[in-house]
Structures are given as C-alpha cells and as structure tokens.
Amino acid sequence: MLLQQLELTSDQIVPYFENAAIEKLVIQKEQKKWHFHFSLEGLLPFEIYELFHARMSSAFSHIASVSFSIQTVNKECTEEHVQSYWKHCIGEMQGISRFYSRFYKIKCRD
After folding, report:
1. What percent of the chain has pLDDT over 70?
2. Mean pLDDT of 44-71
3. Which residues does residue 72 pair with via DSSP β-bridges, in sequence order?
4. CATH, domain range 1-75
5. Domain ranges of the chain
C-alpha cells in the first residue's frame, strides 16, 4: 500500500520490497516529524534507495518531515553496494563539513 502511495509499483522495484514491513512509526506532532522503521529482506540497490528516499520525502511533505531507518534480514553486502552507497556517503559528509565550516566561521567572528 505504501509503495502505491509512493508510486513505486513497477516490476523493477516491487521485488526489493517483498516481505517488507513497517515495524514502527514514531510521530513527533509538535515538530511535525515522522520516523519510519522498516524491515526489508535485503539491502536496496542505491538507485532504488535514492528513489524511495525522494518519494518518501515528497509524499508526506505537506504533513511532516519524514525520515526512516531500514533493518535487513539478509545482511549480505556486495562490492557494488559499497561503491554505490560510498559516493552518497562522501557527498553527505561534504555537506556536513560545509555546514560545520560555516558554523565555525560564524562563531569565531563573534
């Protein structure tokens, strides 16, 4: 049902979500934040993860800021998984570094 809401029903995507479950949903009403805890059979290919992340964010943006955690039953991780997720991690770290760099500069000037 969630995949339908996210419009992720193609034959290339659905198999990655077989036996998936929403284990828990944490709602912070005042902050308008939702955090989903998902259980999946295995690790998503990065392209599927990225699409899922984008759709989760946009689908509920009128209601709340959405984040999620994924736990997998099968913990196997391939070299391809590592390489594709690594690029994303580096990009995220660079974004964090820029934030802290700006924060540090502002604080040091005061």
Report:
1. 85
2. 94
3. 40
4. 3.30.300.20
5. 1-75, 77-110
